[in-house]
Design goal:
This protein is α+β, with helices and mostly antiparallel strands. It contains 2 helices and 2 strands; from the N terminus they run ββαα. Helix content is 44%, strand content 13%. It is rod-shaped, with a radius of gyration of 18 Å. The protein binds zinc ion.
Length: 61
Amino acid sequence: MKQRTVTCPQCGNAVIWDAANPYRPFCSERCKMIDLGQWAAEAYRVPDTKKQDDEALKDEK
Ligand SMILES: [Zn+2]
């Protein structure tokens, strides 16, 4: 059986695409969690635009 490899979208390591790897296409749980965290951060950023504008004025250095 030929092993298929993919590139981890998070760290760029080669990952063996195997049904036994629950984190594919990521190489590990850590990389998967980082990616999910970034996705969640993007999702939260969108409706917060107005609030961030107000805070940006206060926070100017
Ligand atoms: Zn990785």
